[in-house]
Design a protein that fits this description.
The complex is a heterodimer of chains A (249) and B (298).
Chain A lengths: L1 H20 L10 H14 L1 H33 L1 H15 L6 H9 L3 H25 L3 H9 L4 H12 L1 H25 L5 H10 L3 H34 L5
Chain B lengths: L7 H7 L5 E14 L2 E14 L3 E5 L6 H9 L6 E6 L2 E2 L7 E4 L11 H11 L4 H14 L15 H14 L4 E5 L7 H18 L2 E6 L2 H7 L2 E6 L4 E7 L11 H26 L3 E2 L4 E2 L12
Parallel strand pairs in B: 3-8, 3-9, 6-7, 7-8
Antiparallel strand pairs in B: 1-2, 1-4, 4-5, 9-10, 11-12
Classes of the chains: A mainly alpha (249), B alpha/beta (298).
C-alpha cells in the first residue's frame, strides 16, 4: 500500500515536471499544482458539491434500476430455454450498442428531462448486467440444484435459496461491469446534454478554454470511480471469494 | 449362491419379513441424445424391505445411478413404476434423502448452514433447527466445524457434512450414489464403519450404489448385481456376515471374490460385444490384429 502511494507520488511529480519543463505552455498541460488550485476554486464557487451530488444521484438511480432489471432478466434467460430463444439475441445485440446511441432516442421520447439521462444509463448497463447474470446461472453446478430438490426446495424457493446465492460471484462481476458501463454512459450523456452534473462541468471547462479546470473535474471523476471500486466492490468481492473458497493467492 | 455363506436362508425363514418400503415394478428408462437411444435401465423389478441395506453393484455405465435417480424421483421412468410404501413416486421427497458422489454441499453456506437447509425447507423454527443441527454434527463428529466454510474441509469431512444434511429431515430411505468413491482408502474405511454404525442404530433403509465389490459386501444386507446394456438386475445376493465388517475381513474378501467372478463375466461379455473380434476372451487381454486401425471398434 505504502509502495503504491510512493509510485503514485512519483508519477504526479513527473507530471508536474513535464508541465513546467516541457516545450509547451503551461495552459496546454497544467501540472497537478494548478489542477489542485482549479479544484479548490471550483469548490469555492459552490458548484462542485451540487454537481457531484447530482451525478451520483443519477448514477444511483440509473444503476439501481439497471440491477433491478438486469439480474432477474439474466436469471430468466439463463434458466429458461424459451426466454433465451425469445430475448437472448436481442439482449446480446443491444448490449453491444454503445449506450450513447440511445441519447437521441431518449431525448425524443422523454424530452429534455432527467428521464432521458436515466434512460441512457439504464440502457447502457442493464443488459451487460443481464448477460453476466445469465453466464453465472449457466455455469452453476447442476448438482446443487438436484441436491436442493431432494432436500425439499421447490419453485420460487429454489431460485432464492440456491440459484441466487450460488451465482453471487458472477452476479458481483456482472454488477461491477454494469457499474462501469453506467458511469461511462452517465458522463457521456451529461457531456452531450447539458443539465448539470460532472459531465457538464467538463463541458463548461472546455468552453472557458480552461484545461486545468477540465483536468480537475477529470481527477474528481477518476477519484469517484476508484473509491467505488476500492471501498464498495473490493470488500464485497473479498467476502464472497473467501466464503466460496475462490481465493488462491 | 453357493459361494455366499448362507445362514441367510435359515434366518429369514424364522423371522417375519419386514414390510416392503420401496418397490420397483417393471421399471424402464431410456435416454436419447440426437439419434442414439440408450436404454439405461430395462424392466427392473425389485422389492426393498424396511431397514434393509441394499448395495447395487455393476460395471460403470450399467445404469445403477439411473436406478437410484429413479428412486429419488429425480428421473421419471418411461415404463413401470416406483412405489414408496405403495404410493407412486412423483418427484423428490423428504422421505428419501440422496447423497451424491460429489458432496454437492452449498459453498455459500457454512457447515451448519448446509445441514440446516432441509430443515428450513420443512419450515422448522430457528431454535429447533439449531438444536437438531448440533445433534447431527455431533453424530458425524464435526461439531467443532459448524461455522467453517465448505472449502476448508477435507473430502472425508465434506461427505460427513453431506451425510448429516441427508439425515437432517429424518428420511426413511437414504439413497447413496457412490458417496465414498472419491475418497482415499483410509478415509473410506473409517466412513464405512461409521455408516454401518449409523444404519444399525437408526434402522433406516439404505440403497447404496457402488462399483466397489468389497464396499458392497461390507455394507450390504443384500447386494444386487447389475448387468449392463441394457441395465438390469441380474441377481440379488444375501450377505450374512457379522457386523461391524471391515474391508480387510477374511470373509468379506472371500464373498467379494466370488461376486467379482460374476461381474468379470459380465464385463467380458460387454467387451466382446463392443470390440467384436478384437477381443480374445481366454487370455483375458485386449488383442488387436496387426495392421488394424488403432482404436477401431472402441
Amino acid at each position: 500500500m505504502l509502495r503504491r502511494a510512493a509510485w503514485c507520488g512519483l508519477l504526479v511529480a513527473l507530471w508536474e515536471a513535464a508541465s513546467r519543463l516541457g516545450p509547451w505552455p503551461p495552459w496546454i498541460l497544467p501540472g497537478p499544482s494548478q489542477v489542485a488550485i482549479s479544484l479548490y476554486e471550483l469548490a469555492r464557487e459552490g458548484s462542485l458539491a451540487g454537481n457531484v451530488a447530482r451525478s451520483i444521484g443519477r448514477l444511483g438511480a440509473g444503476y439501481g434500476l439497471a440491477l433491478l432489471i438486469g439480474v432477474p432478466l439474466g436469471l430468466l434467460i439463463g434458466r429458461s430455454r424459451l426466454a433465451e430463444e425469445v430475448v437472448g439475441t436481442p439482449v446480446l445485440g443491444l448490449q453491444s450498442l454503445p449506450s450513447i446511441c440511445w441519447l437521441p432516442v431518449a431525448m425524443l421520447w422523454f424530452g429534455l428531462s432527467e428521464g432521458a439521462i436515466l434512460f441512457v444509463v439504464v440502457m447502457g448497463s442493464a443488459l451487460s448486467v443481464a448477460l453476466a447474470s445469465q453466464a453465472g446461472v449457466r455455469s452453476l453446478n447442476p448438482l446443487w440444484i438436484r441436491a436442493a430438490r431432494t432436500l425439499g426446495a421447490r419453485g420460487v424457493g429454489l431460485y432464492t435459496s440456491v440459484l441466487l446465492p450460488a451465482s453471487l460471484p458472477s452476479l458481483l462481476s456482472g454488477a461491477k461491469l454494469g457499474w462501469t458501463f453506467a458511469w461511462r454512459s452517465l458522463m457521456a450523456a451529461e457531456l452531450l446534454y447539458v443539465s448539470g452534473g460532472l459531465g457538464q462541468l467538463l463541458h463548461a471547462g472546455r468552453e472557458l478554454n480552461d484545461v486545468a479546470r477540465v483536468f480537475a473535474v477529470m481527477t474528481l471523476i477518476l477519484a469517484i470511480g476508484l473509491a467505488t471500486e476500492k471501498l464498495a466492490f473490493a470488500p464485497l468481492e473479498r467476502r464472497i471469494h473467501a466464503r466460496f473458497g475462490m481465493d488462491r493467492e | 449362491m453357493s459361494a455366499i455363506p448362507s445362514t441367510a436362508a435359515r434366518q429369514s425363514a424364522l423371522e417375519v419379513p419386514a414390510p416392503v418400503i420401496l418397490s420397483l415394478q417393471g421399471v424402464g428408462r431410456a435416454f436419447s441424445n440426437g439419434r442414439d437411444r440408450n436404454v439405461a435401465v430395462e424392466d427392473v423389478s425389485l422389492d426393498i424391505q424396511q431397514g434393509e441395506f441394499l448395495c447395487v453393484i455393476g460395471p460403470s455405465g450399467c445404469g445403477k445411478s439411473t436406478l437410484l435417480n429413479l428412486m429419488a424421483g429425480l428421473e421419471r421412468p418411461d415404463r413401470g413404476q416406483v412405489l414408496v410404501r405403495g404410493e407412486p413416486v412423483r418427484g423428490p421427497g423428504p422421505d428419501r434423502a440422496v447423497m451424491f458422489q460429489e458432496h454437492a454441499l452449498f459453498p455459500w453456506r457454512t457447515v451448519a448452514g448446509n445441514v440446516s437447509y432441509p430443515l428450513e425447507q420443512l419450515g422448522w423454527k430457528r431454535e429447533r433447527i439449531a438444536q437438531r443441527v448440533e445433534e447431527l454434527l455431533r453424530l458425524v463428529h464435526l461439531a467443532r466445524f459448524a461455522k467453517s466454510n465448505v472449502h476448508e474441509l477435507s473430502g472425508g469431512m465434506r461427505q460427513r457434512v453431506a451425510l448429516a444434511r441427508a439425515l437432517a429431515g429424518d428420511p426413511d430411505i437414504l439413497l447413496m450414489d457412490e458417496p465414498f468413491a472419491a475418497l482415499d482408502a483410509q478415509t473410506r474405511e473409517v466412513l464405512l464403519m461409521e455408516l454401518q454404525r449409523l444404519w444399525q442404530s437408526s434402522g433406516k433403509t439404505v440403497v447404496f450404489v457402488t462399483h466397489n465389490v468389497r464396499e458392497a459386501v461390507v455394507l450390504g444386507t443384500k447386494v444386487a448385481l447389475m448387468a449392463t446394456r441394457p441395465g438390469r438386475i441380474q441377481r440379488v445376493l444375501q450377505v450374512d456376515l457379522p457386523r461391524p465388517r471391515s474391508v480387510e475381513d477374511r470373509d468379506v474378501t472371500l464373498v467379494a471374490a466370488s461376486m467379482n467372478q460374476h461381474l468379470k463375466a459380465e464385463i467380458e461379455r460387454v467387451l466382446r460385444e463392443e470390440l467384436g473380434d478384437d477381443y480374445r476372451a481366454p487370455e483375458g487381454r485386449l488383442v488387436r490384429p496387426a495392421g488394424g486401425p488403432l482404436g477401431s471398434g472402441i
